[in-house]
Known about the structure:
With 269 residues, the chain is an alpha/beta fold. Helix content is 28%, strand content 19%.
Amino acid sequence: MIRYDSHVHTCFSTDSKEEAINYIKEAQNKGFLGITFTDHNDYDFPLDNGKAQFALDFDSYIDYMTKLRSDYNGIFDIRIGVEQGLMKSVASRVNEYDKHEKLDFIIGSSHLVNGNDPYYESFWEGKDVRECINAYYEASIDNVKYCDNFDVYGHLDYLIRYAPTKDRDYNWKNYYDYIYEILKSLIYKGKGIEINTSGLKSGLKNPNPELDIVKLYKSLGGEIITVGSDAHFKEYFGYRFDIIENYLKEAGFNYYSIFKNRKPEFIKI
């Protein structure tokens, strides 16, 4: 069983109201050894009725999480991370983030394409689905090319969670060239990928990314892989981690990673 969840959101993220302490209690009840909190920071995310979204109060976040980690020192392993929204247009800000090296871990994720998130129906309305997917992967290629300050790339095929028919009509091989280029860029830069189980709760057949993409990452020389539930509520902490050990082994991995001080630690499966 995977015993560390490396992608969890709390009330420091716009889209969660969960207290960090509730995740820790849930994790302990489920027999986990540690957790990495990764609250959202997305530069230039569209305003909601004039209010900023996904703009992390970094100093307050660090102060709170540092104290929490101190409180649980020797009892439970707490690590401090951020899920950073990647875009070519904000690459300079992404690359300057956390200058004082307070974080253990940064997930780099592609959420926006031309200012619109696939999470919203407006991303898909009146458009050809395949063109939407092409646009997402084209943006993703630019994001990983121009943004350097992250450790693993999050939920590579994220938008499939929200496609009109989810993954029922989706074949990743139709987008092979995009995905190949993304993976090659990540490996060249020494970045990892994550296995993200969140889509399973909304009806996807596989975690993000699916097994054959993980196999491709491994075959191209990728070694760093983290596992995250992308939980926004405590009930989804460690969601479906029971299937991930075999998933990783089938892809050729004998280890998964957690991060401390932005360096990977490899844990034998």
